[in-house]
Specification:
Keywords: Membrane, Transmembrane, Transmembrane helix. By secondary structure, the chain is mainly alpha-helical. It has one domain. It has nine helices and two strands; from the N terminus they run αααααββαααα. α2 packs parallel to α8 and α3 packs across α4. The chain is globular. The termini are far apart.
Length: 263
């Protein structure tokens, strides 16, 4: 059994178990350690006002970031999250095939899978069509049509790597200037994510060597790093995307805009 077999056939149940334990731990800390403070009497607001307030609660930090922290907005949110990591994780053809092996219902997303590049499809459910010009390669025909120019693994991986590198560099600059709110975990999170992206890119292109042993080693390393991140996720700062942002914003809306009527 090599590293690839270990990562695919042995470790997933343990990774899921650790992840679920971490989720339960984080949620239980909030439920059992949260102390309710006295609040002002609830102000009555119309349903439309509450709905607008809910939308603004989620949009306000994005608008502020776009206005005042353009580097974080472009490098962190757009390049890293929206354009890079999220579609790579959930829609890249290889990932759809792997997730479908573990979770059969995930195969419903096969029609929406994105190819490795605009000229090479890595899964059988992509159909190559000849280009209208005399170029020597073929384009990949996907449900995304012209958007495949953007929605392909190579471009998204590069954008994500740029985004992670920017965030990593930003943390280093902050550390050199001895700014507050920096933890060792911040660097571990970003380094782990960067290693996942780079190893995945190398495995996709059969680098640094095309022989099967090297390919299995690089791909196994990529999957193992990804599993490490999943298991570590509830204990890392990345958990803010699930808990700190979505739940936190819902709590902010309920406490400030719904309960206190501050709209």
């Amino acid at each position: 059994m090599d590293l690839l077999d270990l990562a695919i056939y042995v470790l997933p149940p343990y990774v899921v178990a650790v992840f679920l334990f971490g989720v339960a731990y984080r949620l239980s800390r909030y439920v059992f350690l949260w102390k309710r403070k006295p609040s002002a009497p609830r102000r009555q607001k119309s349903f439309a006002s509450l709905l607008v307030g809910l939308v603004k609660t989620f949009l306000d930090p994005l608008i502020i970031a776009a206005q005042k922290r353009k580097g974080d907005f472009i490098g962190g949110l757009i390049a890293l999250h929206i354009v890079g990591v999220i579609p790579l994780i959930f829609l890249l053809g290889q990932h759809v095939a792997m997730f479908s092996y573990w979770l059969p219902f995930y195969s419903l997303l096969k029609p929406f899978a994105i190819p490795t590049s605009i000229t090479t499809g890595s899964q059988s459910f992509f159909t190559n069509v000849l280009p209208a010009s005399s170029m020597s390669w073929t384009f990949v025909n996907t449900i995304w049509g012209p958007l495949t120019i953007i929605l392909n693994g190579d471009l998204l991986a590069i954008l994500a790597i740029i985004g992670v590198s920017y965030k990593f560099g930003d943390k280093i600059v902050r550390a050199l200037h001895k700014l507050p709110h920096l933890r060792l975990g911040d660097f571990i999170d970003l380094f782990l994510l960067l290693a996942i992206l780079v190893s995945g890119f190398l495995a996709t292109h059969h680098l640094p060597s095309p022989d099967i042993a090297t390919y299995r080693l690089v791909l196994g390393t990529h999957i193992l790093l990804a599993e490490t991140l999943v298991a570590y996720l509830p204990f890392s700062k990345f958990w803010h995307f699930v808990f700190g942002y979505w739940y936190g914003k819902l709590h902010e809306w309920y406490d400030i805009k719904f309960n206190r009527g501050s709209l």
